[in-house]
Amino acid sequence: MELPLYTKEIRGTAVTQTLDYELTQDDETEDLFALLSEVKQNHPDVGAVSVGAIFSSYQGNRVQHVCDRLGLKMLAYLWHRDQAELLQEMVANGVDAVLIKVAAMGLGREDLGKTLKEMQPKLLSLHSKFGIHPCGEGGEFESFTLDCPLFKKRIVVDDSAVVTHVDDTVAPVLYLSIKQVHLAPK
């Protein structure tokens, strides 16, 4: 997209776990505040933040809190969309995203790094069987977009490692720690 990339390691944790959020020291929300503060300082004309939240009021409330403090508008174009329909639209429109975290019954190590297109049948099956959210909106998984129609170049993962956060036989929590990437022509 030819936009500057800002990143920041999340050092905080979910200190405040209630639905509503108030400024809390060492909460992960304050890492987002610090990152967006840096963006706003370097680009004072930025007026909004687009988020991928679909149903998570927990997530939406935290982003809204940060935006309010920085005088930004939160844009949530996917809010309350049907997740099975949205997953199909993402796959059909060339969103190449891979699973980088799994945390639900039926998902495991073998699913990390797989694309949404590869995972779509399994995610829909798990939705039917166990009620998981097909887009991971209940925390069942997280994804990382490697390519989409908006990107000028695609992202290639050069180095990654699987990290076990919770070693549970029913619903392990695993994530793909991305160590190095590079941009490649489409």
* Overall strand count: 6
Ends apart, CA distance between termini: 13 Å
- Count helical runs: 4
Side by side, the strands of the main sheet go: 4-3-6-5
Shape by Cα distribution: globular
- The level of helicity is 25-40%
Could you state the order of secondary-structure elements as H and E? HEHEHEHEEE
Low-pLDDT residue intervals, each spanning 5 or more residues:
none
Strand content: 15-25%
Structural class: alpha+beta
Structure report:
- The protein is of the alpha+beta class and 186 residues long.
- The protein is 29% helix and 24% strand.
- The chain has helices spanning 28-42, 57-70, 83-92, 116-130, and strands at 48-50, 73-75, 96-102, 141-147, 154-166, 173-184.
- Strand 5 (154-166) and strand 6 form a beta hairpin.
Strand-helix topology:
Blueprint: H1 28-42, E1 48-50, H2 57-70, E2 73-75, H3 83-92, E3 96-102, H4 116-130, E4 141-147, E5 154-166, E6 173-184
Parallel strand pairs: 1-2
Antiparallel strand pairs: 3-4, 3-6, 5-6
Helix pairs in contact: 1-2, 3-4
Give the tags.
4-stranded antiparallel β-sheet, single chain, alpha+beta, globular, 4 helices, 186 residues, 29% helix, two-stranded parallel ribbon
Brief summary:
This protein has 186 residues and is an alpha+beta fold. The protein contains four helices and six strands, in the order H-E-H-E-H-E-H-E-E-E. The protein has a four-stranded antiparallel β-sheet with strand order 4-3-6-5, with no helix packed on it.
